[in-house]
Amino acid sequence: MKRHFRVWRGDESGGEIQDFDVEVNDGEVVLDIIHRLQATQTPDLACRWNCKAGKCGSCSMEINGKPRLGCMTRMSTFEENETVTITPLRTFPVIRDLVTDVSFNYEKARETPAFAPPPGVAPGDYRMQQVDVDRSQEFRKCIECFLCQNTCHVVRDHEENKKAFSGPRYFIRAAELDMHPLDDRTDRKEYAQASQGLGYCNITKCCTEVCPEHIKITDNAIIPMKERVVDRRYDPLVWLGRKIFRRDQLQNGSATNMAPSSSEGVTGVAAGLSGAGTRPPQAPAVGADGKLEVAELLSPHAGGPSPFGNDQEFPLPNITYNHPEQDKS
What we know:
By secondary structure, this protein is of the alpha+beta class. It contains ten helices and seven strands. It has helices at residues 30-40, 103-111, 130-137, 147-151, 153-156, 168-178, 188-195, 206-210, 217-234, 236-244; strands at 2-11, 14-23, 60-63, 66-69, 84-87, 94-96, 99-100. The chain has a five-stranded mixed β-sheet with strand order 2-1-5-3-4. A two-stranded antiparallel ribbon has the order 6-7. The longest helix is centred in the last third of the chain and has 18 residues, at 217-234. The termini are far apart.
């Protein structure tokens, strides 16, 4: 049967929503519809995709106003008479049609300090307990679809924040390394606060809501990182120690000791430069049943309400994208 679709067409100079009637078959996903549009009506429609299995993160788009993967959004989730509106990610500048410039994320990735192995341990000799692996394994499921980056209102609604804010994708990277028992850097959380904009996040859980890998970004990464920063900054004993001792006498240096990476690949301690000391592997406690008892991983609290409530109507009427002009210098 034929269904009605509205697809945004345009480029960095502007564009508009166009209407299409497309044949839909049982079991198809939104990406199938885009391919059928390219084959039958609009051969110049631009759209990124690769694996069509929800593992590459390429086909990120907004479907009826919600950031989703086109290959993982089944047509059966919509009513038969419902119009489906497909638009590009709004946080990033449009290149053409559904393709956006997500280079902002790769710039933030290069700024994130790399894993720093402990000195004196050769590659291949690293040893970790399974509980340590499980603790941060969740964060390694990220497919870098950047849906969390797109829906985060800190950058979505405030272009001026992009220089100081890395976003949820790189907060989970910082949390992963902070929880890593072999990472030689001890100031991950302070660096996240000082240089990645951790304090900008007000934990509305929008990023968790849209994650296709169901990573609990807010509960398991951002909130624990914020709590640890608060402990270090506002604990009265730590405050008193900072007043009594000189900076070079403190056990842990400030976040300014760790400069962001300025090049791709291995940097800092991983490149052979001096480190700040070794943190030996230490497994968290396990319960009597032999299972890991970590509050961040086994949080009993339910997630917050969806930011995509019933206050929106679809199809979106008369949408025109006016993205900020890209710096072409």
